[in-house]
Amino acid sequence: MAEITLTVEPGRSQGSSASRRLRTAGKIPGVIYGHGMEPVAVAVLARDLRRALSTDAGARALLTVDLEGKSHLAIAKVLQRHPVRQTVMHVDFQVVRRDEVIATEVRLVFVGEALGVHRAGGVVDQELLSLQIKAKPGDVPPSIEVDISELEIGDSIRVSDIVLPAGVVAETDLDAAVAIAHVARAAEVELVTEAAAEAAAEAAAEGAAEGAVGEAEAPADEG
Predict the structure, then answer these.
(1) What's 3-96's CATH class?
(2) Which of 88, 90, 93 lies closest to 67, judged by CA?
(3) For residues 43 and 27, is the Cβ–Cβ distance under 8 A?
(4) pTM of the prediction?
């Protein structure tokens, strides 16, 4: 994973009013901590943070955070976003080591086209959007691809079926469903309706046949 250098300013004022002033000035309040380091309140230029998190690695980018001339290898562990605009409101930088295994979350991306499912009028539902993993910082992938091209109606892909990059271990339940291929809802309703109509027709035919047999076996009226 490529590293991105990001400069942060220490000694920011804390509190909601101070944070609003920082955002108005184009800065994002944050904190940096980890590996015995006392948490330090910092501020980072919004455009720099946005640029750092806009690479293929996204929010999982490995960062070299420059704090008062001292570099810290870190990740953006927590990003607090505005509930509507989804802009970053606060960021937590966690200091990491290259040789340590960290826990993080990586998004899942479907690749390929499930032609068999589409030909049968079905759909593929994505049950999991991301995967909890453990890996060294340099081994964390920007995303994990899931090939759905071989799926047929009734098939599913589980976490245990995903081919993970070297050095990556899944922490999510291995039996958890990632993708499920099934008949589309409209088609399901049509199948149920057809089955019900067939059942009704069969019942009517059986009833008619039983009635005919009963008439044939009835004794003649001796009058």
Answers:
(1) mainly beta
(2) 93
(3) yes
(4) 0.68
Q: What does the pLDDT read at residue 205?
A: 63
Where do we find the tokens 């804390």? 14
Class of domain 104-183: mainly beta
Tracing tokens 């870190």 back to the chain, one arrives at 74
The answer to whether residues 48 and 7 touch, using CB atoms and an 8 Å cutoff, is yes
49-78, pLDDT tens digit by residue? 999 888 877 777 889 999 999 999 999 988
**Three-state secondary structure of the chain:** CCEEEEEEEECCCCCHHHHHHHHHCCEEEEEEEECCEEEEEEEEEHHHHHHHCCCCCHHHCEEEEEECCEEEEEEEEEEEECCCCCCEEEEEEEECCCCCCEEEEEEEEEECCCHHHHHCCEEEEECCCEEEEEECHHHCCCEEEEECCCCCCCCEEEHHHCCCCCCCEECCCCCCEEEEEEECHHHHHHHHHHHHHHHHHHHHHHHHHHHHHHHHHCCCCCC
- Give the domain ranges of the chain: 3-96, 104-183, 185-214
* Cα 110 to Cα 148: distance, rounded to the nearest angstrom: 7
Would you say 125 and 179 are in contact if contact means Cβ atoms under 8 Å apart? yes
Q: How far is CA 97 from CA 19, 35, 127, 169, in A?
A: 30, 9, 33, 18
Percentage of residues of the chain with pLDDT beyond 90: 53
Domains 3-96 and 104-183 belong to one CATH topology: no
Residue type, 208: A
